[in-house]
Amino acid sequence: MVKVIVQFLYTVLTLFGGGVHTSPIYIDLSTCNDLFDSKNDLNLIEIHFIRQIIDSLKKQLSLMFEEKFLAVFSKENPALDDLEYIEKVLVEGITLSTSKQVSLSSARKATESSEMAANISSTTLKVTGKQNESYELEQSKTVEQIKGLNVQEFLNKISDIKNKAGIDSIYVFVDEYSDLSPKAQATFSALLKSFLGSRIGMFFKVGVITDRYDFGDRIIVGRDIFPIPLDFNEYADRYNGAIAAINKTQTFVEKLITKRIEKFCPKLKLTDVFKSNFSEIVYRVTRETLGVSRTIGIILQNAFVQASSNSDGKIGLAEINYGISSARKTYQKQFTGSVKKRLVPGYNLDMWSAILAKATEEKNKFPDRPASHFMADPLRKEYLNVLCENFLIHFISENVTSKHGGNYNLYSIDYDVCTEFNIKYADKKDEYTPIRFIYDSVLAEFDPYFLESKQKSYKCPECEKIYAEEDVKQAKVKRCFDDDEKLVEIVHQDAPVTNGNFAEVEIRILGLILQLSPEEALTAREVADSVGCTIQKVSAWAGKVLGKKGEIKIDKSFSPYKYHTAEA
What we know:
This protein has helices at residues 42-64, 67-76, 78-96, 151-165, 182-195, 232-238, 242-264, 270-273, 278-289, 293-307, 317-340, 347-365, 385-389, 415-420, 440-443, 469-472, 504-514, 524-531, 535-549; strands spanning 15-17, 20-28, 100-120, 125-145, 169-175, 202-206, 373-376, 393-401, 407-413, 457-459, 466-468, 488-490, 522-523, 552-555, 562-565. The protein has 568 residues and is α+β, with helices and mostly antiparallel strands. Helix 1 (42-64) crosses helix 3 and helix 9 (278-289) crosses helix 10 (293-307). The longest helix has 24 residues, at 317-340.
């Protein structure tokens, strides 16, 4: 499940409330490849980052004020000219070189001449001489200077402009921090530290993913930057239980949909958009999304498209079910494509199949009872990270007590998957705490893939039972105890993955496109909406990198271009 320090919902460019002007600046680090050069030069990073802020601030000012007023404002505020000068210096410094050369020369001349005259007579002897001496030596010295910029000087200019423009606060939203490599994160965090605590009304919000960020030694979470977790399990603890948190989320989803209609379609009523049984629609949307706002948008978008073919054009349960199914299948395509391309280890697909088989088995025992949730030992939390990131399962809560005893992590299988397999969804605590919903026996089969040691294990090709080395080490020919098949050695921690260190969003993009036939091809905008990134990220990485390598196909007969698998 995704957890962020701050998630940026960029719905309004400039907020005006009670005379308060807030200027937001959004920077997507996944699209800022030029922010980091090959040497991670801190001076170069500083230059690019400041350029991003300047560019965004100028756009905000142009949106806040009319063109004529902005011209007057620029005339009366020399700080804005200074800002443009800073930007010009930065641009020139990057286009020409990362350093300037200053030539210093000094001259010293050296020449030598001599002259002698003699006069001889019978009575006198006269000799005169003249000698001039000078030296001439030319030398030059070259000094390299990095054209950096003092951060405090820049902040002072920003403060002047902010005060003159009547802006109370500037919020800089730095997104996709987790897409940076560990080395790049360390470098960027050092720069970020110099901006924090500026006391000019400029605040920074940084979006990260759970366990995929490092602010280094200089920035301390809780002192310099404060966490605002958005994982569903965090709110389960806050609201004293998973069921209470789901009910609270359901109330939020209802308010979110209602308020959006009021703001963007003030002439429409709720009944003009949705058919009857709106509470059931909210119930289903909540359980499919479980706090992932992007999924809400995907569901409603697909439901609206489906409803457009109806005579009344309204969204009902059938349309919502279609939207829910479309969202789940999109995520599942990303996961399946990632495994197929070996972007993630294939045992994740085996683990998903094993969990689903166990849930189906429990459902078949008692068809009228829920079997949507399961519990696992917290020590095996890492096992389920990939499945949670692809929303096939959802991390619901920590420290859930089983009726059998002991504390476990609680997970739920995706709501649409439960619908497809006729698995009843649990709505009460007593429905998921029985001992039969502890899935450690299922996950234990995958322990060898996560062991830190390099000890060997063996797997039976017939029944797929896994044996620790200590259980069969005495036998020269290792065979299964049940069916006597010869065991196959398992290579731990060497699961096949593709070359390259892809970020999570890149895995999603490639995984999704690999599952698209030419008839199902999507535009960069559609791919971006599905995986939760910017259109620039898709067009830059998929178009310029994956397309050139032949990993995917780009259909340029359409405008905009469409992307699909390169496989026949």
